[in-house]
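Researcher: Go.
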Amino acid sequence: MPTHKYHVARVNKMATRPSHLESTTILLAWGGLDIFSGRVIPSTTFDILAPDFSYQLLILVIVALICTAFAMSSYVMHKKLVSQWA
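Model: Structure:
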């Protein structure tokens, strides 16, 4: 039974294909009297962004992390050089 809501009679074949959405699959069940088509998705929408998602904040955080990584790399190289001369 490929559906929770409807009864699909005498299904003997099923096919699935991935969709272009993450964690979503297209299902086709047929045979006997009925044909059923639908999407199979997780019960929670963990991989869908909210409509008010702040892309600007995301970009700002990524840029800040990259700048911090470069700054720390320079700092570590300087500390190694100073420790070698000591």
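Model: The beta strands are 13-18, 25-31, 34-40.
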